[in-house]
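Priority: medium. Attachment 1 of 2:
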């Protein structure tokens, strides 16, 4: 890897890490306050809205973001073409959501969903305006500006949400928090990017980007449906309270897995795209990414599962304790998220968006089994079965990535087993502390201390390579 690419990669990782830690740390702290002011049912209502907002945002993107990032010589006309395409699609989907607001409320048997859906529909257009500026900054591996903007929007929207929740606005506090967050973020990105759209649109540019992006669009839609399908089943077959508990548990587990996956995908895609023609270097960097990221993923998620009860009690209160078993199951299931993301990036980097589409079709088929189990049994068995479906989907991912970068399933398993064993040891020791009969606040602090000491001790004893890579990176950047 060239010196300039190394510097850009390190800067990208560092600023994306700061972005994730600061922005999601702020969001996490805000959510703790909001969880104490709001009920599981109110979180359940916002969870239903997320099903449609997330799906429509994937459609608005249309796969153009990755297409334009991957394109080696994207020009001004390419960016204008993508910008106007995004705006047109978002306006149509916003109108569609407005028209579907009442049917959505009837389907989920929640009358207040109609007004909530109509208000939240504007988020689709707001996010569409931010897609091209964000893609341009990402292509330039400029995560510093994105980080500053994201932190400001998280703080400002968090304050708005807390004030409204304190004033008894209920679920509307969450709605206006999300709208204000996206609006501030979009405005900030336009100030940061050195680009302005002109009245240019190229059919040939659209066709070129569409040929790569449409498969990512379809696979993104399938992926969104795959992710949101659990919320659809819980929201329809059970209660909004049950969905609120699931949403809360999912947010805690996602705090680790999704954020790690975000860091990996945001930085690795533009970086690996630059060396897509060098198979040896691609595989070498790819192996390093998997080993280091999975060490962090396993340890954080297994540690969270071990102290789930004391953590929930201390952070958001006794009324949320019913989500503890859901959180513990999700912590195991979510360990596969970064692995899915890394293998998908490898496939996209070499230009095989058709394989990404094919994989998401397979994943949706495999994922129907946990949903069927959830419909006829309960939420717990649905989530337990999702662990096995995620494992199967990971195996399918590796089958294709192996052919493209020659990194087999056996090699990957050998590379991540040491990290798994370290994390499992941390889990056993930390979970053992939960049997001590002491105050929950003291127990939570003790579990964190014991978990951290166990992690560092085991890594030093076994002389774990990825631990030293991670430690060297942190020390050199400090």
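Attachment 2 of 2:
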């Amino acid at each position: 890897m060239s010196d300039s690419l190394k510097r850009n990669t390190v800067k990208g990782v560092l600023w994306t890490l700061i972005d994730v830690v600061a922005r999601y740390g702020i969001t996490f702290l805000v959510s703790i306050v909001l969880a104490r002011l709001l009920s599981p049912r109110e979180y359940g209502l916002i969870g239903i809205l997320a099903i449609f907002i997330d799906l429509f945002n994937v459609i608005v993107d249309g796969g153009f973001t990755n297409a334009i990032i991957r394109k080696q010589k994207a020009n001004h006309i390419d960016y204008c073409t993508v910008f106007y395409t995004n705006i047109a699609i978002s306006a149509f989907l916003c109108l569609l959501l407005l028209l579907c607001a009442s049917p959505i409320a009837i389907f989920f048997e929640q009358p207040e969903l109609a007004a909530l859906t109509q208000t939240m529909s504007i988020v689709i257009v707001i996010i569409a305006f931010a897609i091209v500026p964000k893609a341009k900054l990402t292509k330039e591996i400029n995560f510093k500006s994105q980080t500053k903007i994201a932190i400001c929007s998280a703080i400002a929207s968090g304050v708005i949400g807390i004030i409204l929740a304190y004033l008894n606005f209920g679920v509307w506090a969450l709605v206006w928090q999300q709208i204000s967050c996206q609006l501030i973020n979009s405005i900030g990105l336009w100030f940061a990017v050195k680009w302005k759209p002109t009245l240019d649109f190229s059919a040939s540019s659209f066709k070129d980007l569409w040929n790569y992006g449409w498969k990512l669009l379809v696979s993104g839609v399938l992926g969104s449906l795959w992710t949101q399908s659990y919320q659809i089943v819980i929201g329809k077959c059970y209660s909004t309270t049950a969905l609120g508990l699931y949403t809360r548990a999912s947010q805690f587990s996602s705090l680790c897995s999704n954020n790690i996956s975000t860091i990996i995908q945001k930085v690795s895609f533009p970086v690996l795209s630059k060396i897509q023609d060098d198979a040896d270097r691609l595989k070498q960097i790819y192996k390093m990414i998997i080993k280091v990221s999975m060490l962090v993923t396993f340890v954080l998620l297994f540690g969270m599962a071990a102290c789930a009860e004391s953590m929930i009690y201390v952070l958001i209160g006794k009324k949320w304790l019913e989500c503890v078993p859901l959180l513990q199951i999700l912590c195991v299931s979510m360990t596969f998220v970064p692995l899915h993301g890394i293998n998908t990036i490898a496939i996209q980097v070499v230009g095989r968006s058709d394989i990404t589409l094919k994989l998401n079709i397979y994943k949706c088929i495999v994922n129907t089994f946990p949903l069927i189990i959830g419909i006829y049994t309960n939420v717990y068995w649905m989530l337990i079965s999702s662990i096995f479906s995620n494992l199967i989907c990971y195996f399918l991912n590796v089958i294709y990535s192996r052919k493209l970068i020659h990194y087999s399933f056996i090699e990957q398993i050998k590379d991540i087993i040491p990290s798994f064993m370290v994390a499992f040891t941390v889990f056993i020791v930390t979970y053992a502390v939960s049997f001590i009969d002491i105050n929950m606040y003291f127990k939570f602090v003790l579990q964190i201390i014991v978990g951290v000491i166990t992690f560092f001790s085991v890594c030093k004893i076994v002389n774990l390579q990825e631990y030293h890579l991670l430690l060297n990176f942190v020390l050199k950047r400090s």
